[in-house]
Amino acid sequence: MYTTDISLAKTLTGHQNPIFALAGMPGSPTLFSAGNDKGIVEWDIASGKFVRILCAVPSAVYTLCCLPSKDMLIAGMRNGELWCVDIGRQQLIHKMKTETGAIFSVKVLHGKNELIAIGEEGTAYVWSLDSFELLYRFRVSSTTVRTIEPYPGGRQLVFGDKDGTLYLYDVNDFKEVEKKKVHSLPVTALHATETYLYSGGRDAQLFQMEQKDLAIVRNITPHMFTIYGILPHPTAPVLATVSRDKSIKLWDSTSLSLLKNVSVDRGYDGHRLSINTGLWMENQLITAGDDKLIKIWDVVAREA
Question: In residue terms, where are the WD repeats (predicted)?
């Protein structure tokens, strides 16, 4: 059993509209944020300082993804465009587009050097990261898909759709392996660890599942409203969840027992509106949401 201590280190201000996406550059203090503003912002979280507007964008940004090996930031937008931006040169390298609708999730398939995106229309698009050529296009669901989560090892990945259904796919040939309705409302967050797959939804439910067949191991109701992020700690068996109910909660990742409840009501200088996204950068948890703020939390996890 682990115990956790959490304290607010910094609050980053400057966004004029809700924030939907964060991405961190591994091994550095560089953080990127975006949302309903017309630009992607770069921050230095060590100093808590604004660095620059990396680039202007034509539409709201729903998802960000860093590719350190290419010094690249990938952004998926409401208008269906997917931008690949060279960070160092501050230059748009390539622009791709889905046929219709917003892009809600984008992930890198490292073993194949490919990029996969999906969104409003329920169709997945796979591009080569070498040539940016569209390699595959396949229908996953007849409705909106908001989340993609590759498994560690890169052999399989999971999609979650608006009907609450999970789809397990083989990465080699993008064939469906398993399909299971888990949530009563849309799937809004997925994360896979070495051991389990976790799924959160608009029904405020969190499911812990076996990866191979999506069999449910545990199910809890961690929040009052939609779960927007499931964020395993980089090294400790601790799981963070963030929600529309404005709270952050820390859990034992195996037993799903509650370790910490972080909210304004609990005396923390927390978010006062929906928390839409989060990520870990080493031992710091970064959260952001509708209140236009980015909060950097120091987290200490230790064995009890």
Answer: 12-53, 220-261, 268-304
Mean pLDDT value across the chain:
96
pLDDT digits (tens, 9 = 90+) for 95-125: 999 988 999 999 999 999 999 999 899 999 9
d(CA 70, CA 220): 39
Domains and CATH numbers, the chain: 2-303 (2.130.10.10)
Residue 25 DSSP code = -
What are the pLDDT digits (tens) for 15-28?
A: 999 999 999 999 99
Q: What is the DSSP letter of 264?
A: G
Q: Which residues neighbour 251 within 8 Å (Cβ) at sequence distance 6 or greater?
A: 222, 238, 239, 240, 241, 257, 258, 259
Residue 264 to residue 79: CA distance in whole angstroms: 35
Helix, strand, or coil (residue 132): coil
Q: Could you give the CA distance from residue 251 to residue 254 in angstroms, rounded to a whole number? A: 8
Between the alpha carbon of residue 173 and those of residues 58, 154, 197, the distances in Å are: 34, 13, 21
Structure tokens at 287: 């959260």
Is 1:300 a contact under the CB 8 Å cutoff? no
Task: Please identify which residue in the block is written with the tokens 């998802």.
Answer: 63
